[in-house]
Design a protein that fits this description.
This protein has helices at 2-9, 11-36, 39-64, 79-107, 115-140, 183-188, 191-219, 228-255, 265-275, 309-322; strands at residues 160-163, 173-178, 279-291, 294-303, 327-334. By secondary structure, the chain is of the alpha+beta class. Strands 1-2-5-4-3 form a five-stranded mixed sheet, with helices on one face. Residues 16-256 form the Cation efflux protein transmembrane domain.
């Protein structure tokens, strides 16, 4: 039933469901953890609290990413990217606290008083996180939802394009091309939902540690059983760091407006000048990502004549489309120049 709700309602409904369950279980874990002297359960409860924060950030990001206004011409398209960055920072901070707690547990052993109760709470936490993994797995791995601000929804199969060439002498020309299929967007998925998914996955691993620790404490009588929990906590912290760093890197690159990793700007510029008839040179080429599934580009083109710009623009669309850029702004600069001339018709 939960899986069906995810498909019908989308990421917003999934976030709300998981937020309610996680908030309720956070209070359960922290009460039981302190009452049983289980530092592992207390640590996992704060992990749950971190999940609550990430879910709130994710929910706000999903809601506001659809909001458009006259003051924000792109809307809040980067709300999800900002949410992903916040989630990554929270996860890395959490890993630091886990490492400190694990070291303290290795130095000063604190036995669990009621391991069976801890086992029950840990099992319930694992069940909740498994539900969360089902809720967010598809959203985090390529199931993208169209937003109102997007110029190129992959749900539309028919091509749509239009050219504006009212002012060829240095005027700005908007080229809009809607592709038939957006493969790269489907593969990348939403960064914010990836961040939420990593939070839930990390908490599921924390629940597994609580279960294993409770089982060993309850059924093993050797003194080393109390060291299992901190050692496994260190291992889980390493896993979380390895899975979070790529998310942090990708979201930071988008906010810094670095070109998408799959686009080589030098190669693209070379293709524009060598394969497009009438284009003498390309300068001020800028490629960046508005979000994890939308790339934007702008460029100045030096041309001998603007007579054939309509056909040239059509070819340019396909070159950028093949590179994964579907929102493009071109500024033609018509000069009777040679290839030795550079920016805006001024010779080197």
């Amino acid at each position: 039933m939960t899986f069906t709700c995810k498909i019908n309602r989308g990421p917003k409904f999934s976030l709300i469901c998981m937020l309610i369950m996680t908030s309720a279980f956070f209070f359960t874990e922290i009460v039981v953890g302190y009452s049983t002297n289980s530092t592992a359960l207390v640590a996992d409860s704060f992990h749950m609290l971190s999940d609550v924060v990430s879910l709130v950030v994710g929910l706000v990001a999903v809601i506001y990413s659809n909001k458009t206004s006259k003051t924000n011409t792109y809307g809040w398209a980067r709300a999800e990217v900002l949410g992903a960055l916040c989630n990554a920072v929270f996860l890395l901070s959490l890993c630091f606290s886990i490492v400190i707690e694990a070291i303290q547990r290795l130095v000063e052993v604190e036995p669990i008083t009621e391991p069976l109760l801890v086992l029950g709470v840990g099992s319930a936490g694992l069940a909740i996180n498994l539900i969360g993994l089902l809720l967010f797995h598809e959203h985090a791995h390529g199931h993208n939802h169209s937003h109102g601000h997007s110029h190129d929804s992959h749900d539309v199969k028919n091509e749509h394009s239009h050219d504006h060439d009212d002012d060829p002498e240095g005027g700005e020309i908007e080229i809009y091309y809607k592709p038939k299929v957006r493969v790269t967007a489907a593969k990348r998925g939403h960064l914010n939902m990836k961040g939420v998914f990593l939070h839930v996955l990390g908490d599921a691993l924390g629940s597994v540690v609580v279960i294993i620790s409770a089982l060993i404490v309850n059924y093993v009588q050797d003194s080393w059983r109390f060291y299992v929990d901190p050692v496994m906590s260190l291992f889980i912290a390493l896993i979380i760091v390895c899975s979070t760093l790529p998310l942090l890197k990708q979201s930071a690159y988008i906010l810094l407006q670095r070109p998408p990793a799959h686009i080589n700007a030098d190669e693209l510029e070379s293709r524009l000048t060598k394969k497009i008839k009438g284009v003498v040179s390309v300068h001020d080429l800028h490629i960046w990502q508005l979000s994890s599934n939308q790339a934007i580009a702008s460029a100045h083109l030096t041309m001998h004549s603007e007579d054939d710009f309509g056909e040239t623009a059509h070819r340019l669309r396909h070159v950028f489309h093949e590179a994964g850029v579907h929102s493009l702004t071109l500024q033609p600069e018509v000069y009777p120049c040679k290839k030795g001339m550079s920016v805006c018709g001024i010779s080197d």
